Structures are given as C-alpha cells and as structure tokens.
Amino acid sequence: MMGAPATAPAELGVPLPKADALGRWSAVTVAFVSGCIFAAGLTLSGMTQPEKVIAFLDIKEMFVGSFPGKWDPSLAFVVLGALAVALLGFALTPYASIRPWFTADFMLSNRRRVDGRLILGALLFGIGWGLSGYSPATALASLLTGQIDTVLFVLAMLPGMWLAGKL
Q1: Separation CA 94–CA 2 (nearest Å)
Q2: What is the DSSP string of 2-32?
C-alpha cells in the first residue's frame, strides 16, 4: 500500500490559509474543464444512453444465441479504461506534490472499514442505475438533450443528494 496523506491540515488543527480570488477561479476552472472532459467521454462512449447501460447490466442476454448473445459488453471497456486512468492517478498522487496545484487543501481518506452506510449507498446507487440506466454523471451529461426522463431523473436525484448530505 502507498503511504498517502490521510488527513487535511484543517483536521489536524492547522488553519488553512485563505484562498485568493485567483486560486478560487483556478480551482473552479479546472473542475469545470475536468467535468466537461468527463461528460465528453461519457457521451462519446455512448454511456449517456440508458438503453446501452441496461443492455450491459442485463447479463441474462449473454445466454441468448451464441456468446455474447444480445449482451452489450461495451461498458466493461469504458470501466477498464477509467480504472486504468484512476490507478495511474492514485499511483502518482502521493509523489506529485504536497497538494494539488489549484486547491488549498487535499485529503485522501484513511477509512478502510466497510459499514452499513457504504453498503446501503452502493445498493441504492446500483438499483437506481439498473432501473433507470442513468448514474448521476450520465444524467447530468444527458440533461442538455432535454429528454423528459432525464429531467425527471435529475429532479428526483437532487432531493436524494440533499438527504444523503444530512445523514
């Protein structure tokens, strides 16, 4: 395992310096550009199409006709590509710098315990994703299409996110 920083300076009782306006705008710009790249990747890979996601999750279709039948394995390739990028990021993060360039603080979680909240959250996410074909990211990326099912999903998702923040 890597030896990564486990806590933010604020948690150690060290006050964080106030971020200047340029630093805040830099962080917002980097977050916006990163989100746009992520949304473009989801769109280009077809993962904003609920039918494609549901076709991947419906594994019984593997057994219809010759392998892989009507099952769509394309999401597995998207996941493997994302996993490769994430693993590279996690491998390089502790060595890149003390903190990211455009933010005042940085924290890698030191939690290693699987608890009921984590399991419940994963179950709710999986059930919602399987029933609708949307994850929060794909729903937000698809919101610009103006489809009523996407709008309804996002409108239902927002109170759920608010409630999860209160728990």
Answers
A1: 8
A2: -----S-GGGGTPPPPPPPHHHHHHHHHHHH
Max distance between CA atoms of the chain, in angstroms, equals 63
Q: Give per-residue pLDDT as tens, 38-79.
A: 888 888 888 888 888 888 888 887 777 777 777 888 888 888
Sorted by sequence, the CB contacts under 8 Å of residue 138 that are 6+ apart come out as 42, 47, 48, 50, 53
Residue 62 DSSP label: G
Domain spans, the chain: 19-166
- Give the predicted TM-score (pTM) of the model: 0.60
